[in-house]
């Protein structure tokens, strides 16, 4: 097994280290950087629990070889906001009770963030489409969609 | 009395990615544990060769069945199988290695020789006269203790005085829990020679029992600590015990912390499924709609091992006839073994299957009688003072009719039904609207003592910790308990925190099942809080020159009821109590009255309280594109009092999604007993794009036996959904008698004129 140099900016911090060629971005985040907020639910790109934002786009980090992301900018749930400075999406998820077990939540939040970064005022259909790759077995998605709508409103109230 | 919703107690950690699930834990020196699965439906193990595997780099231990103190857990399910493989998920060897890849390489190096045996692969095959009997010492494939009869009146007489008799058969399939978090544990040893297992477990006390059985340790030397559970729905029960037991063995063998985490494929292959049922119903009615007799045979597939059918089928027999008054009833429920994955508890515990069959039957019977589905139900609904099929006289409010009428009103059912009936048969889109009504016995009832406990502790600064014996598995139990404790003590819920279950701390309060978490689990919380309140009131009374019984508490103040200005803050009294050495930590324990049940006749008071539900579904079938879609679901519930509206609504929406999946798209498929859809690319569950418009309402209801007036919801939220969708499809002229609706048999059974009308199971309209 060969190691190669990987440079990534993760949640604003520059990472520069040798990693196994076979590692997925998900493995580097969870096992090397201990950013365990990003979850693994299927390992084949179907559940979205491992969603992070790579260079502005939501990706399934289980489907990305870490080295292929070399030089990239990664955002994970840990970089989204902190308990005392929540991202509007996080605050809105709290207010709308948009989570139950919480296992899908980090991926759901990152898909939603990528959407809002690109389109601050998405329609309900666009929201559903943006999170259609994020499986949630608990909530039935209703409160999640409400929370994302509300977060959009909070982020750009002027456009209401 | 319900205060505005506070945030869920566990939400902040979850939205910030800080909640540590079992698979997120790391300990210095931890190693990876893995299992070798047989991947055979039925076989004899001729030999196992671990010679190469044990020498592979990084491998620390390879264990076979003989290396274990005990081969199986409390049930017949083995930690490691020795001679005979009974299903694909059976495990032949355990491996511990320095890393996951090293463990995997070792698994690949183990050679097992099998002698293949003929397999039993369906309920029909299990019941055949000339079938192979799977479990030694048995005369047939019936699952031990799984037969539960109900005998009421005399069905022969009932059919004799019926003017119409209808017989129908219905079926359901294996459904996967599909919790998004696969099973995970981390096992280590404590400084005192105990074993500590952190796990994604719904029932830590079961896991503790399993670890003790696997290792030979006493229960006192095993501590299971529940981590946040990433969904369970009944799924992370016994199989988590098996995983915990295996990890514990490897931990003791190697002296290192052992982490075992399943991938999705392993999770689906090993874990329990919703029991498939075959229903044979025969109903007799008078022309005016009165149902005189019901005979039913309910057979469920228990799979390879005996996991739940012996308990679940009791619930099944109680609910087999639905929420109707029927004088003559004969019900037999039993399960059979096969060589497929075993059935286990899954949200509803038989009810979604039964309600699908029995509410389909009601609609079909209405059709035969020339009555509307509503008319037939109104003639037969149970009301207060009526007797259920188990001979129980219902004394609490019975709201089956009330929730039904309200759901129909909210969904504009009557008008739509007429409008859809008048659709032009040549229209591209065919619409249908249908409903199902159900009741659900709350908690364990006569199945087992519904006893449980909780520890409530007030700290010297006024903060409060609630530790229940029951688990929060995402349903929001900690939030509900905090609300109940806060109300009793008259404090704001923000000061309350909660801990996940640690078997080293809280008493064994049984399993978190049967939607009993709030209904029963809330009781010891309230009892403990009440005792602390009494202690605090005694102190406050002195301070306020009043009598304790004249005091009240609300919003962090203790005050004289008649003169609220005379008050003292909760914090001040707590500090005083602490300094005075008062007891500020209390273990509450709820023990219900014993319930009498006659096993041979199925007669007795099954449950103290029942929840009532009606779901209305609207469907559209596009005859050109072939897409069938659920457009709208309306769900109305009597769950007693709603403790936390946001969490309760989340249960209902989640139940809708799960019910929609079961109705339309979800089915574990097999090839010769081996699962062919073991990940989410082939096993589809509803996505956000599949969700219909969703409406819900909780009707006001009191006068029940639940904690703070709250009945059960988690399972009630799901159980009537598949039935409602099936009845809506029937109204659109596609009567489904087998779930999921769009399985292959459906195509085979379609009339020539209907073929090609419905081609996909997608509910998506995006
Ligand atoms: S773990 Fe990456 S999509 Fe499921
Ligand atoms: S909250 Fe449990 S999977 Fe989404």
Return Rg of chain B in Å.
Answer: 27 Å
Largest sheet of chain A: 5 strands, mixed
Residue fraction in strands of chain A: 15-25%
Question: How many domain regions of chain A?
Answer: 2
Q: What characteristic shape of chain A results from the CA principal axes?
A: globular
In DSSP terms (H or I, runs of 4 or more residues), the helix count of chain A works out at 5
The percentage of residues in β strands of chain B lies in 15-25%
Number of strands of chain A: 5
Helix content of chain B: 25-40%
CATH architecture of the largest domain in chain A: Roll
- What is the arithmetic mean of pLDDT of chain A? 96
Helix/strand layout:
The complex is a heterodimer of chains A (160) and B (766).
Chain A: E1 3-10, E2 13-20, H1 25-32, E3 51-54, E4 57-60, E5 73-75, H2 88-95, H3 105-118, H4 124-130, H5 142-155
Chain B: H1 11-15, E1 31-37, E2 43-49, H2 51-55, E3 59-63, E4 84-85, E5 91-97, H3 100-109, E6 111-116, H4 123-127, E7 148-152, H5 155-160, E8 164-171, E9 184-189, E10 195-199, H6 204-215, E11 222-226, H7 238-254, E12 258-261, H8 264-270, E13 273-274, E14 277-285, E15 291-303, H9 309-319, E16 328-337, E17 343-344, H10 351-369, H11 373-380, H12 400-410, H13 413-421, E18 429-441, E19 452-458, E20 464-468, H14 477-489, E21 496-498, H15 522-543, E22 551-554, E23 557-560, E24 563-569, H16 570-579, E25 585-590, E26 597-598, E27 603-604, E28 610-622, E29 628-638, H17 645-664, E30 670-671, E31 674-675, E32 693-698, H18 716-719, H19 721-731, H20 744-749
Parallel strand pairs in B: 1-12, 10-11, 13-17, 15-16, 20-21, 29-32
Antiparallel strand pairs in B: 1-5, 2-4, 2-6, 3-5, 7-16, 8-14, 9-10, 9-12, 14-15, 18-28, 19-20, 19-25, 22-23, 23-24, 26-27, 28-29, 30-31
The structure holds FE2/S2 (inorganic) cluster (2 copies).
